[in-house]
Fold these 2 entries.
Entry 1:
Amino acid sequence: MSFHLPKDISSRALCDLPFTVYHGTLVHTPELDVLETIPNARVGVDPTGTIVYIKKGRLDCSIKEEALKYDNELANIAVVDISSSGFSKFFIPGFIDTHIHAPQYPNCGVFGNSTLFSWLIKYTYPVEMALEDPHKAQSVYKKVVKKTLANGTTCCAYYATIHSQSTNILADCAYELGQRAFIGRSCMDCARKEYTDEGFEGGVKSTMKVIEHISKRDPGYDLIKPILSPRNANKCTREYMKWLAEQSEKLSIPIQAHLSETEDEVEGILQMFPECKTYAGIYDSQNLLNESTILGHCVFISDEELALINERKSSISHCPTSNSCLTSGEARVRWMLDHNSKVGLGTDVSGGFSPSILTTARHAVLVSRHVAMKTRSDHDKLSVNESLYLATLGGAKVIGEEEKLGSFAVGKKWECQLIDLDVEDSPIDLFDFLNPSISGIMQKDEEDLRKFQDLIDKWVFNGDDRNVRKVFVNGRCVIDKD
């Protein structure tokens, strides 16, 4: 059966949008370990999906009258009001998954007793090769985009397979369903013979097909953008890596790659590059470390490597769930943050069993505690608020979109999730004697703020996709479960 990519697709995140005011509680982390709660906020969002004002405190007129004070020529003003729900409903920035393998989604939770290499051969490569079939690719990719959106992930940095047509299907699925996405065809010209590009020339040709398709689908890269994805240093020739680096500079396209996921991997790869002292140094020698490079895992990087990554202004995607599932190791995130590194979170599906960044955030907290048990230093522990920062604004910095995403501010996109802690069948139980008062939160009463912080902690450790009721990308509601 033949398969043809559609020529024209409309996107849920690019449809017409009236000027809209959102009224309710905002929760975000504008700084590391700082949770800011803004009750009774009114957020004006223009037809481009951009926040044009945030009003706080007492409302002295109607919401529409307040909007007209901003612009008296507004004729069509929509209002979304959740203020009557008090503390139990709030808007929080959308999650950003900085490292996820879309074709591996069918294998979520399947890893047995495998470590990285045996898992790749037994589970990963077979399912990725199966997606050469575009019908299978479309089935998988629609599900993974829908599932990540339903979990509040508004932006993903995706790895696809080596197949250009299937990778273009992933781009189309993200575009149509309204998810912001970086789409990366896995680049490997010297990998296992049954799973590799047809040499350097074949890899170049396939990569350009994906770049050209995305450029035609979304010429301004308003929603989807290609990302160059040399999978590992041992799976790409030096010629291929240097070509990818040249395209990154020439076309202003970001780069994503894996770095130091396991000790065995690092040892084996260094033997292939005797002229380099470190794994990060290998990438740097091929000009792959730049301001838009995302390095997944970084579990076993040295002081020298972290200094090099920071000098090149590259970023790190922390994948605690995957690193635990495959017993790869425990990344020292506090050490990275102490050195002002750019760090975000990645589910690393399907090394990570869950497509939920909320799950990843809780595991980031837990893994940091395991690090602290070894170092015997509480300083190494991450707080819930720090983990939420990595899931939102930290991730936005990793993908180079912190001026547009990750927190609530004038000039940024309305890109967020509506969380309901008291929804039917919620995994979180609320108790009146422990609940904060919304008026107390407005007055910044310390006890009420502490109680609300406790609820945020409960949500991070107990919440799931049932608590995510609406998801907004580019100002548009792309998921509405109510």
Entry 2:
Amino acid sequence: MIHARHGTDGTEERTHGRHGRRRRLSVTVVSALLAFALGALTLPSLLSDDAEAAGTQPSASATAKDSFKHPGVLVSDAQLDFVRRKVKAGAEPWKSAYNAMVKSKYASLSWTPKPRATVECGPGSNPNHGCSDEREDALAAYTHALLWNLTKDRRHATEAIKIMDAWSAVLKEHTNHNAPLQTGWSGASFARAGELMKHTYTGWSSARQSRFATMLRTVHLPMVIKGRPNANGNWELIMMDAATGISVFLDDRASFDKAVAIWRKRVPAYIYLKSDGSLPKSPAGSSKDTRKELIDYWQGQSTFVDGLAQETCRDFGHTGWGFAAAAHVAETARIQGLDLYSEAEGRMTKALEFHAAYELGATVPPWLCKGSVNRGIGSVLEVAYNHYADRKGISLPKTKQLIQTKQRPSGASYFLAWETLTHAGNPK
């Protein structure tokens, strides 16, 4: 596997004597100031979260490695090596998952990106001015980045870069009601694609890499890093999925710490445990704190049991998005040396089993969602299941049955792509 880091443009600088050294120092200082102004350099994180300030939780900086590991957004070198070996051996489920990816529209070598300056996404993506186009293009870029890494066919590298270059040349903003969620969906996939291509391929010019980084830094990151405490929980978790991935790509420790801090507050407010008390936790920064407000926020559900989620009584589809995004953040953090999985273990494992049971057809009791649930959680559980069941050996029989009988191989949609391929049984 080829590893490459791209820094300067390779231009040779010549200096002569004392005046030359002074000139070089001046250029260096100016460059550093410009980099700071553009956000390429970051100051250490100043944690404003009360729990962090009080020392009740370790900060990301205190527990993760000082520098980021690359590639390190959702998938690592070791994980991709594992997948490559399994596919080459024709082992299942990786062979079927790989074939599904290769046959998908996202793997087309004649993919035509459709960038635009302003992506406008209203409620439910209505109006849809570039929303689907950006999401689809980001998924295609990530698909080609995976295929490049698994096959070393440079045509896929070229396609991935073509798509990212097209968007970085044009995109200026996301607008309207769904802008934060849209930015999360597309930003999560773009960060994964960019991370793989930046660190495994030498053919992406430093100038185009910088332009792509500027897009993520100035268009995507400011929208997602603020969080969305009063929205349904899948929004904020998807936004943190994008924020952590973008932060790793940009080597932005302060933004990574901030995203992790939001995740640490949102997951306990999204999945209930009886140890929380008679009511679920209120999202940090939310105005929803009375009993009535919290019950309304939990879709009218007034009986709370281990593993119930804030959107369970809305539908399993959005709930599954929340679980997947939470696991994505934990997986990226794990690669970076930070164990968020353990912090969420009780909530996540109980939530997986609780929802898998009803997705498999268990009778819904009268106290749950007025006796009826909207099933259809989707193929969203591979990353979390792989960590808790395969790596840690926790028994999750209903989740296992659901994944193995109804969800494999997972495909690509919104901010999810090929997770049976990348994470099924992956010990790395």
